[in-house]
Amino acid sequence: MRDALMLRPVGRVHRSDTASRIEIDAAYADALLGLADYSHIMVLYWFHHNDTPEGRSTLQVYPRGDRGNPLTGVFATHAPVRPNLVALTRCQLLAVDGLTLTVAGLDALDGSPVLDIKGFIPGEPDPDQVRLPRWV
Amino acid sequence: MRDALMLRPVGRVHRSDTASRIEIDAAYADALLGLADYSHIMVLYWFHHNDTPEGRSTLQVYPRGDRGNPLTGVFATHAPVRPNLVALTRCQLLAVDGLTLTVAGLDALDGSPVLDIKGFIPGEPDPDQVRLPRWV
C-alpha cells in the first residue's frame, strides 16, 4: 500500500433547478483572484456518494450503465466509481460574486466537495489525431 | 476544517529523456481494460515536491514565475502550489504494455504519484466563446 495523500475540500457544490453554485470556503478567498477573467473553468470535485469500499474497489464498468457496451476499465471511462473519486468537469463560469461561483454545465450532485478549480485554457489536439473507443 | 478525503496513488511517473512512462500498480491492472483505444488520456497526478505546509498554503502567485504578470489566485492558474496538489495534464498515449503506459506530453516530474487516468474525449467550446486572462 502506498502512502495516502490528503485532500481538504475547498468548497461545496449547491445545485438548483437553474444553475449550479460553488461556494468556496472563506479560507481560500485569495485563490480566486483573477478567476473572473476566464469564460470557462475546470472543476475538480469528489464523488462523495461513492466514497465506500465498494465504490473505490470497482475497477471495471459497463460504460453509461449500458450492458450493450463492452466491460471497460474505469481508467478508460469517466465513471463515478474509481480508486480515487476525483471528478473533472469543464464548465462555463457565469459569475464570480465574493466566494460564490455561478456555473453552467457542472454535472456534480448537490453537496459535492470541491477539490480544485483551474482556469480553462484551450488547446485540444486536432480532431484527425484523436482516436476513441467505439462506445464513446 | 472540513473532513479530509484520502487519495491512494495508483501508480508512478518515470521520466526519461525520450518519453515518460506511467507504471500502474498491479492492484489496478483491471482498471486499464480498453484504455489503449484512446489516442489521448487525461493524467491526474500529485505535485509531490510541494506537499508541504508552504506549498499548500500559497494562494496567489505570479503566473509562470514572471513578476511582469499580475498577482493571480492559484485557482486562476495551473501553478504547482495550491491547497490540493492535483495536477491535470492531457497527453498522448503511445503504448499500453501490461501495467506500463508510454506517453508524450506529460509534464510530471520523475516519481510523481499518479492519482487517476481518464480517457480523453474532445469537446472544447467554440474559440469565439472562450475568454482568457491577458497573461495567458
Indicate the topology.
2 copies of one chain form a homodimer.
Chain A: E1 5-7, E2 11-15, E3 20-24, E4 40-46, H1 53-57, E5 60-61, E6 72-73, E7 86-97, E8 100-104, E9 113-119
Antiparallel strand pairs in A: 2-3, 2-9, 3-8, 4-7, 4-9, 5-6, 7-8
Shape field of chain A: globular
Quick one: CATH class of chain A? Answer: Mainly Beta
Annotation field: number of helices of chain A: 1
What is the annotated CATH architecture of chain A? Beta Barrel
Strands of chain A, count = 9
Strand line-up in the sheet with most strands of chain A: 2-3-8-7-4-9
First-last Cα distance of chain A: 33 Å
Domains of chain A, number: 1
Fold-level CATH name of chain A: Elongation Factor Tu (Ef-tu), domain 3
CATH superfamily annotation of chain A:
YaeB-like
**For the CA atoms, what is the radius of gyration of chain A?**
17 Å
Alpha-beta classification of chain A: mainly beta
State the order of secondary-structure elements of chain A, H for helix, E for strand.
EEEEHEEEEE
- Please report which band the strand proportion of chain A falls in: under 5%, 5-15%, 15-25%, 25-35%, 35-45% or over 45%: 35-45%
Summarize the biggest pleated sheet of chain A: 6 strands, antiparallel, barrel
Low-confidence stretches of chain A: none
Overall pLDDT of chain A: 94
The pair of chains with the biggest contact is: A-B, 65 and 65 residues
Helix percent band of chain A:
under 10%
Oligomer: homodimer
